[in-house]
Specification:
- This protein is α/β, with parallel strands linked by helices and 366 residues long.
- The chain is built from 15 helices and twelve strands.
- The protein has a six-stranded mixed beta sheet with strand order 2-4-1-5-6-7, with helices on both faces. Strands 3-9-8 form a three-stranded mixed beta sheet. Strands 11-10-12 form a three-stranded antiparallel beta sheet.
- Helix 4 packs antiparallel against helix 5.
- The longest helix is centred in the middle third of the chain and has 31 residues.
- 36% of the residues are buried.
Length: 366
């Protein structure tokens, strides 16, 4: 499994600049005019993880394979997008395929970069985007209800589904996001939520895009975005998309020196990816051998057979047992053989819950 994140926001807030940095190449045109991105761009981005490098130094594999995140750069939305304004609804449908939304909000002043509404106001900009997402969800649900109504004429058993959909529609029409729908009631319509792929049901990371001068200290724009995110129980990160683009291609020492110049410890992109993992409850385990050291993404709480299935479905179907070494034990002892000799390699069965950083070897039979 993997993580997919859709990058959304108004035109000229820095989405394509951020995307360029994510891909470490100029794959998304950044231009000072709205709608320079006319097709959704996809970037498969390695998840930064120092543990995989430390394991590689011990194992000396032929290659390293990081876990990855799929980022989708969606064309700038404007007021009325749900009704076809700007580039319209076609781009909203692309967001439905993602696990989470990275909402880029402009938090810098620059007279040379025009704002679609004439001035910088992060809370207004957030409201515009979220209103369009909500309106798109309402349209999606209305269409679904029409289909259910037609089916209900010949199948009375789906009457309850129609009632549930109606309750959800009224909830959205009251201006509420699907993510805030009461958990007890959501359990009754879980399938409906899954089928619809509601945009406002997705987890959100608010990305406050600043200039280099406000990386160390928050400006008033960032404070507003952070406060708003906290009120919604969402995550906010601060990033300078332009600076991240300048980091492309630098060696580790150069990157550290560059970040230190701005009193920043961690790259904003690295922070964003890490927060995305945390937000969706994802962890990584490792396989380590002479051919490769590889990170595998799973949900926190998964048991060993399900984790094995990420490698291949046969691993899950024919699971026998797993050999497990914690990352700390592996690096402390220096090799798998040493871990066996010291007794820190343990054998686990089907009920074992995989921990973040476990180094695993699966035995199976099909």
């Amino acid at each position: 499994m993997g993580l997919s994140i859709g990058i959304v926001g108004l035109p000229n807030v820095g989405k394509s600049t951020l995307f360029n940095a994510l891909t470490k190449a100029q794959n998304a045109e950044a231009a000072n005019y709205p709608f320079c991105t006319i097709e959704p761009n996809k970037a498969v981005v390695p998840v930064p993880d120092e543990r995989i490098n430390k394991l590689a130094k011990l194992v000396n594999p032929a290659k390293l394979v990081n876990a990855t995140v799929d980022f989708y750069d969606i064309a700038g939305l404007v007021k009325g997008a749900s009704k076809g304004e700007g580039l319209g609804n076609q781009f909203l449908s692309n967001i439905r395929q993602t696990d989470a939304i990275l909402h880029v909000v402009r938090c810098f002043d620059n007279d040379d970069v025009v704002h679609v509404d004439g001035n910088v106001d992060p809370l207004r900009d957030i409201e515009v985007i979220e209103t369009e997402l909500l309106l798109a969800d309402i349209q999606t649900l209305e269409k679904k209800i029409e289909k259910i109504e037609k089916s209900a004429k010949s199948d009375k058993s789906i009457k309850a589904s129609l009632e549930d959909a109606g309750i959800l529609l009224r909830y959205l029409n009251d201006g509420n996001h699907a993510s805030l729908y009461p958990e007890k009631e959501k359990a009754n319509i879980k399938q409906l939520f899954t089928e619809l792929g509601l945009l406002t049901a997705k987890d959100v990371i608010y990305c406050a895009n600043v200039d280099e001068n406000h990386l160390a200290e928050d400006n008033e724009y960032v404070k507003k975005v952070t406060s708003y995110a906290e009120s919604k129980n969402y995550t906010a990160v601060k990033i300078s998309a332009k600076m991240e683009e300048e980091l492309v291609g630098l060696e580790d020492d150069e990157r550290h020196e560059f970040l230190s110049h701005y009193n920043v410890v961690e790259s904003g992109l690295e922070l964003t990816i890490r927060r995305g993992y945390e937000l969706l409850g994802l962890i990584s385990y490792f396989t380590a051998g002479p051919k490769e050291v590889k990170a595998w993404t799973i949900k926190k709480g998964w048991r060993a057979p399900m984790a094995a299935g990420v490698i291949h479905t046969d691993f899950e179907k024919g699971f026998i047992r797993a050999e497990v070494i914690s990352f700390n034990d592996y690096t402390k002892n220096g090799s798998e053989a040493a871990c066996r000799n010291t007794g820190v390699l343990h054998i686990e069965g089907k009920e074992y819950v995989v921990n973040d950083g476990d180094v695993m070897h699966f035995l199976f039979n099909v």
